[in-house]
Amino acid sequence: MTPPSAHQNAALTAPINLVTTRPPWSQTFSSLKIRNYRIFASANLLAVIAVWMQRVAQDWMVLELSGSVTAVGITVFMQFIPSLLLMPLGGILADRYSKRLILIISQSAAGILATLMAVLALTGRLEVWHIYVIAFVLGLVVVADQPARQVFVNELVGPRQLRNAISLNSSIFQMGGMIGPAVSGVLIMAVGGGWAFAVNALACAVTVISLTMIRTHELVKMPPVKRGKGQLMEGVRYALRKPTIVFPAAMAAVFAVFGLSLAVLMAAYANTVFDAGAGGYGLLNTLVALGALGGALASTRFATLRLRGVMSAAGAYGVVLMLAAFAPSMATFGAVMVVAGFASLLFLTSANQLVQMSTNVLIRGRVMSLYIMVLIGGQALGGPLMGWLAEHWGVQWAMLLAGGVTVLAAAVIALVLAKRGQLALKVNLRSPRQLVFIVPKAG
């Protein structure tokens, strides 16, 4: 068998962008010029707003019904534990079958679950155990939905626009995060959280309709992977061989357990530290999303993707969380949350781009499922852990720990990368402007 040509490899694996100049501002939304992606992105914005509304309403209703921050963490655990255990199966589905069809089925199922939650809440029959069960089933839906959604973006825009589309997807997610929590907070105070679930059910229906409007002949499709033994392990071995996949995934694991449990900690801050209620919790979520939107848009301006940039963003996020632990007021805490959102999305978007752009499209579904498993599954562990720490140690100590562990992990991975690259850290006490810098190792 002759090895594939360079042209064939280029068609299978999208090259990492090594342009040394920043893209012009006119190219910030370049992927929206593609009709299929415009339809997908428009429906996705509505869907994300509704998902954020449901998420805030769900967390707050659990807190109201149980009076326990740990119960909020358990809800997070129930929703994300399927991803920790089963996400690789979703990756295999994404590589074998139509991504569009998978999304239609998964969004229909999510709409049914949101409708059930709305009926229970609006009739006054909702109990904490109902939320646990529905959150778990929704987690099973996510197992099929997320890998297909990640890979489907490449089919919509092709490899040349993939980085831009990933950044815009992150921007859309954060725009929804700005609008959804604020609207949900108002709804909870005015008419109750049940209507947030009803809105999400409607948004799921709109998403399904939008997917049927996509022109399939314009998709950049790859041939489906045939059934075979060892396909999951093939994805694992592939990921472990590539530093641009394994190191972002390792950082994402720590980031998910500690850093992405911020919603649980913000609920505790709003409820017990600042006594701000549901409206304050919605406001904090909106401020995080405001900063994250800036981070997502900033990621479209980067000319290159580098591991050191990914780790720097993760470390910066940890530092910001440590500063938040000492915030003396709601106003100060909210301002720090904006910066936290910015740093968080810089890491998440850059890591996602680096992993996708480093992966052959024929195996991308399986690789992305492993990455999502780490990212979402980590939240399943981190939610109850951080909720327990907030209740027993105090929320300020829990926030300090979340930031400190994230900083430590970023520093350790940075040192490993420096060693692999034959680099060393030097300290220069004579120069306060550059105390620490990286140099090539002697010899």
TrEMBL record:
Tell me a GO cellular component: plasma membrane
Q: What are the transmembrane regions?
A: 39-57, 69-89, 101-122, 128-145, 166-189, 195-214, 245-270, 276-298, 310-327, 333-355, 367-389, 395-418
Alphabetically ordered keywords of this record: Cell membrane, Ion transport, Membrane, Transmembrane, Transmembrane helix, Transport
Q: Name one GO molecular function term.
A: proton-transporting ATPase activity, rotational mechanism
- Read off the PROSITE patterns from this record: MFS
Q: Which Gene3D superfamilies match?
A: MFS general substrate transporter like domains
Protein's membrane topology: Multi-pass membrane protein
- Domain Major facilitator superfamily (MFS) profile: residue ranges: 36-421
* CDD domains membership: MFS_MefA_like
Where located? Cell membrane
Q: Which family does it belong to?
A: Belongs to the V-ATPase proteolipid subunit family.
Can you name this protein?
A: MFS transporter
What organism is recorded for this protein?
A: Arthrobacter glacialis
